[in-house]
Description:
alpha/beta; Rossmann fold; 5 helices; 32% helix
Amino acid sequence: MVRLLIVALAAMACPLLxxxxxxxxxxxxxxxxxxLLMLRHAHAPGFGDPPNFxxxxxxxxxxxxxxxxxxxxxxxxxxxxxxxxxxxxxSSQWCRASETAxxxxxxxxxxxxxxxxxxxxxxxxxxxxDDLRAFLAKLPVDGQPVILVTHQVVVNAFTExxxxxxxxxxxxxxxxxxxxxxxxIPIEAR
Length: 190
């Protein structure tokens, strides 16, 4: 009951957190050197994870459905259409994130525990964010685009722009653990 109340309150707050006053950026922005897309995994019905959740065992997790898989493939196709043929792609260890990353078809996918969710593991929040900031600080400021497929709570730790499933924010890598937020990506083709 408490979990349901927390999720309901979070869902009501999401529109308040999003930066609705700023239109989404063109996807081509991501193709520029030093750009980073922090992407929430594609649609996976439900919320949180089952009580028997085990990293590495997709049968114990909330996974993408057919619409989520289509959403990830479509975003990958849209990114390729604006000139992003390859990127460094990293994913959390959750199956819904790694499948999203793989279906983008923009390059090999590397598992990065610093992208793991802490939604139901608040005790892991600080460690995960510290590890992610250390990772971000090491990225070259003029390197090829980077895509990080993660979870809503991780994206929200870096921006007020709450992403829907398959949505995310573009950042400029700046040699620190706090890349400059530029804006959100359009969820649908424009």
